[in-house]
């Protein structure tokens, strides 16, 4: 609850928040424009437009308010957690590695099958997060992936795509 | 007594061997995932949602009841044994609980949390069973205008009460409402906000939204700020309480329950407020008896009270969920999403449409709560070991199960792309301090709200007055206005007198 920020002087401005405000405003405008393309049928006094209009407008108003608040020195309180250390600057490299691995997984999962990409996903993420026991992570990942494949297949009756292991699993 | 019979019927169907097994699995899995650092009850439920796919509605709700209480209990273990609480509801438990653990009284802290949770959960669930039918009977009479107004009230309260910034609360809500718009319009079947993508026509699966925002977002956010020093975990033996501990705990348990339940039932943000109030109350009472020097140094009352309040509010949340179909916490939203998967229509008719299901759920909550005490207390040392799990593997595991869950929904890599997009959103809202609860509530309640709004306005032929033609609706709108206007006025009136009143209480 109490968040000891080193800088209590409200002089600094969180520039990224302007970016957020801009994105929100665009989303709001897009919502309104998208709703304009909808047809309102006969005997339907309200139609599908009103609700998006309200939400889109609300979004635009909030975006403006956020921009104003930012200019006045309003700072966000980033979320804390057990393993979160907000005193150090964000480690973008790790995040980029993780996102790359997640993208790779979604591109390959239908081709290679979950039992393969799942294992790589686990080992890759552990590596990106700083684990140096690659071999052990790979073993754990493969066990998790193959195990979850069988769990879904046998336990829940949901056959996940087998991919290249078709016929082996 | 009618309620008692219905509850006994619920027990009869919950107490089959098979269903007991599902309840036990739920409790164990829930605790397992809840104890893991970085995973709260809401994320635990979202991650475990796919596990229930193969089950029928009753069994999966039984399992969810176990998961829910298990996840709550797991969270308190984490906050006692680690020196940083994972979520706002356990902040108060962590203050005294961690101090107790440091003084070698971890066993007693865990025991008073577990027994307190059990007592609060049991009383709370019984209160739900006795209150909800009456409210539901009354709620069936509620017309579309009033129901619309009540949903609006819930959204406004959740967005403005929680968190430090109202503006960010409403931004979260607006983002959620926008996500809820995606898909085909319910009555005219026209695509909205799909950008021409056929995959989005059915709307976005709530599992993908929840897992993306909670799990992927959390994992990415933590990865960006991963603590390089390992946290010190306090070793723990078998939980137990001495005579004196029991004597000092029972009254805080009951007071915590009394505080927690009503707050849980209101759409005012779940457990944060009542745990805080409970802590303050116990501290004041101790001061009156001249014993408050122990507070801040590991007073057992400071664990017993807030922990009971936490669980009682967790039970109280079922009142609006079951009577009105209105979720008021993130966890309740996910429970509601799970129910929707089985074709259960949320809303005031839930209780009359699905009586068997609801009573079985309530009975399972009581059973799950008991199992929790019986199974988990002896297992505490084992759970504590989980806290030492190396972080790279932990977060790799979260990402693994998040992808598995999203992929299993429709077996399409498109869902994984959407998952990643919501992971990005989850990261952004953590970065910008936007609360997650209004967002999730917006996703779930938005579409429902639109249906009610159009129902109300169809009746009045499009006249705006259609939204106001019930006395109840007008009353609720007055509450909405008060909720928006009063807090700033009070804050302004108070500010000169107590400049830092609020902050002093939390060391």
UniProtKB/TrEMBL annotation, chain A:
DUF1468 domain boundaries: 21-160
Source species, domain of life: Bacteria
Matches recorded under Pfam families: TctB
TM stretches of this protein: 20-38, 50-71, 98-122, 134-152
Keyword list, A-Z: Membrane, Transmembrane, Transmembrane helix
InterPro entries linked: DUF1468 (IPR009936)
Protein's name in the database: Tripartite tricarboxylate transporter TctB family protein
Annotated organism of origin: Nocardioides seonyuensis
UniProtKB/TrEMBL annotation, chain B:
Residue ranges constituting the DUF112 domain according to the UniProt record: 20-441
Keywords (A to Z) from UniProt: Membrane, Transmembrane, Transmembrane helix
Transmembrane segments: 20-49, 109-132, 144-163, 170-191, 203-221, 318-338, 358-380, 392-409, 429-451, 472-490
InterPro entries: DUF112_TM
Record-given protein name: Tripartite tricarboxylate transporter permease
UniProt source species: Nocardioides seonyuensis
């Amino acid at each position: 609850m109490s968040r000891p920020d080193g800088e209590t002087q409200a002089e600094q401005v969180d520039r990224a928040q302007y970016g957020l405000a801009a994105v929100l405003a665009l989303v709001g405008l897009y919502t309104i424009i998208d709703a304009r393309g909808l047809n309102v049928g006969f005997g339907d006094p309200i139609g599908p437009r009103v609700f998006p209009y309200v939400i889109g407008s609300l979004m635009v108003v909030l975006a403006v308010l956020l921009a104003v608040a930012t200019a006045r020195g309003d700072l966000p309180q980033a979320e804390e957690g057990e393993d979160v250390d907000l005193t150090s600057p964000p480690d973008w490299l790790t995040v980029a590695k993780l996102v790359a691995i997640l993208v790779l997984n979604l591109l390959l999962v239908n081709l290679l099958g979950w039992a393969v990409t799942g294992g790589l996903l686990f080992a890759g993420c552990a590596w990106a997060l700083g684990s140096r026991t690659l071999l052990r992570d790979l073993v754990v990942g493969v066990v998790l992936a193959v195990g979850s494949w069988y769990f879904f297949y046998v336990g829940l009756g949901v056959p996940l795509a087998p991919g290249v292991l078709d016929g082996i699993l | 007594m009618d309620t008692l019979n219905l509850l006994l019927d619920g027990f009869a169907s919950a107490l089959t061997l098979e269903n007991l097994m599902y309840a036990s699995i739920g409790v164990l899995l829930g605790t397992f995932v809840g104890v893991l650092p970085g995973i709260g009850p809401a994320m635990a439920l979202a991650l475990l949602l796919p596990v229930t796919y193969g089950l029928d509605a009753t069994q999966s709700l039984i399992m969810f009841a176990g998961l829910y209480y298990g996840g709550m209990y797991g969270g308190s273990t984490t906050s006692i044994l680690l020196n940083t609480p994972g979520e706002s509801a356990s902040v108060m438990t962590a203050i005294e609980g961690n101090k107790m653990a440091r003084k070698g009284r971890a066993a007693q802290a865990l025991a008073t949390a577990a027994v307190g949770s059990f007592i609060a959960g049991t009383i709370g669930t019984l209160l739900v069973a006795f209150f909800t039918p009456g409210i539901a009977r009354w709620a069936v009479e509620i017309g579309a205008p009033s129901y619309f107004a009540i949903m609006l009230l819930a959204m406004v309260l959740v967005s403005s009460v929680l968190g430090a910034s109202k503006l960010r609360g409403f931004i979260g809500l607006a983002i959620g409402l926008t996500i809820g718009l995606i898909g085909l319009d319910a009555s005219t079947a026209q695509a909205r906000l799909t950008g021409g993508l056929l995959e989005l026509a059915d709307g976005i699966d709530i599992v993908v939204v929840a897992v993306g925002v909670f799990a992927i977002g959390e994992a990415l956010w933590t990865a960006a700020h991963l603590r390089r020093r390992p946290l010190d975990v306090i070793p723990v033996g078998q939980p137990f309480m001495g005579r004196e501990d029991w004597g000092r705990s029972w009254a805080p348990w009951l007071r915590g329950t009394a505080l927690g339940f009503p707050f849980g039932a209101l759409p005012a943000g779940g457990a944060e407020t009542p745990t805080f109030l409970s802590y303050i109350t116990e501290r004041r009472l101790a001061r009156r008896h001249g014993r408050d020097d122990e507070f801040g140094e590991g007073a057992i009352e400071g664990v017993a009270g807030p922990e009971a309040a936490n669980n009682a509010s967790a039970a109280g949340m079922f009142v609006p969920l079951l009577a009105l179909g209105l979720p008021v916490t993130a966890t309740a939203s996910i429970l509601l999403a799970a129910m929707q998967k089985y074709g259960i229509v949320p809303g005031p008719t839930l209780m009359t449409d699905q009586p068997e299901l609801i009573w079985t759920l309530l009975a399972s909550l009581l059973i799950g709560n008991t199992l929790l005490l019986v199974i988990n207390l002896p297992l505490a040392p084992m759970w504590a070991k989980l806290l030492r799990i190396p972080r790279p593997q932990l977060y790799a595991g979260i990402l693994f199960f998040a992808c598995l869950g999203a992929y299993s929904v429709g077996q399409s890599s498109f869902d994984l792309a959407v998952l990643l997009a919501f992971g990005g959103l989850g990261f952004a809202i953590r970065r910008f301090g936007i609360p997650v609860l209004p967002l999730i509530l917006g996703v779930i309640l938005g579409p429902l709200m639109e249906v009610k709004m159009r129902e109300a306005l169809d009746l009045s032929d499009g006249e705006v007055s259609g939204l106001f033609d019930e006395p109840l609706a007008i009353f609720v709108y007055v509450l909405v206005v008060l909720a928006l206007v009063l807090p700033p006025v009070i804050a302004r009136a108070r500010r000169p007198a107590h400049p830092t009143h609020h902050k002093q209480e939390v060391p």
